[in-house]
Amino acid sequence: MKAKDAQEWILLVHQLPQKPSKFRVRTWRKLQILGAVPIKNSVYVLPYNEKTNEDFQWLRQEIESSGGEANLFRAGSVEGATDREIIELFRKERDEDYTKLISEFEDLSGAAREQAKGNSLSVGKLAQYQSELSKLRQELDRVTATDFFQAPQRRKAQDAFEKCRRELQTTESKNRKGSANRNDSARLKIVDYQNRRWATRKDPHIDRLASGWLIRRFIDKRPRFHFISEGERMVNTLTFDMTEGDFTHRGEDCTFETIIKCFGLETDRALCQIAEIVHDIDLKDDKFNRPEASGVNVVIMGLAIVYADDGERLKQSFPVFDALYELFIKDRNVQVVKKRGRKQSDGTK
Fold first, then answer.
1. Cβ 204 vs Cβ 278: under 8 Å
2. How many angstroms separate the Cα of 327 from the Cα of each of 96, 276, 324, 334, 335?
């Protein structure tokens, strides 16, 4: 009889229909995402807990609804394999995932480092590297979530991510300083943009709403907003997010990003994080692959339904962006405190 805290397993035994083949591929991918490992033909195993049980229950339903067969078994042991052998199989699978990620982190760091040395790392390329790093981090989080038995390569993969992140941050900081030195004279002065009239297109959504918030909070303390049709013009009025507007899309940037750069606000990391979210929602290119984008987009879509009046919609959107900004400020402060705490515990200054 096994001890009370002995390892328990949940097994999925399935038989998939021959067609469509895409369902077989989808099932295999789902098993990979769940972290399940095969122990026999069409028999997959996970360590038993409430979540893994629920995951396999959902997969069983998917298989059966598609014409296949699936059964689940909870077991204290698996015939033909010891617990140690199964655990080592899990560790081997995760180590393969970690090893691949380590190589990708190192390749990304190396590419950025070499281009920076040759002064050929453009802002656009650096943004692409940051996006790739974000995707790799999500994959690392996924693998870690299914690393049930602490695979040996786990720490090395996490260290490789941190090293890559630090190197990209250092490179980004150098690029910003260099850009600031080159462009200080070209930046607009906030003092010259007070008590102005600002116009944008009717029926505002993410880029126009976020840009309105940015103008109100960081540029013009008493702005007057107007909503007009495309092609319409107003005298003595600044336009944003409109064709040939004063502030609009430039290159790969959305209007929000353009305004940040025009007024030299790039040093505010919290604003830059919001800019990445706005960019991903507005341009739909997943350049930054921000996980918050889908949630923020749903909120903005809800505001558009509730508030038909453009001015009221803009006003009601301000707390959304205020909350995001404070969240990112707080997150950065927490990281700084933790970093200082580590230094103090190490006896460094």
1. no
2. 36, 15, 5, 11, 12
Q: Of the candidates 138, 159, 186, which is a domain's last residue? A: 186
Nearest to 217 by CA among 329, 332, 337, 333: 329
Q: What is the dihedral of CA 46, 51, 53, 55, to 10 degrees?
A: -90
* C-alpha neighbours within 13 Å on the C-beta side of residue 233: 6
Angle between helices 269-283 and 206-214 (to 10 degrees): 160
Nearest one of 252, 244, 300, 251 to 276, comparing CA atoms: 252
Question: Residue 219: which domain range?
Answer: 190-336
Q: Which residue has the higher pLDDT, 275 or 349?
A: 275
The pTM for the full model equals: 0.54
How many C-beta atoms surround the C-beta of residue 274 within 10 A? Answer: 24
Domain C-terminal end among 30, 52, 81: 81
Beta bridge partners of 324: none
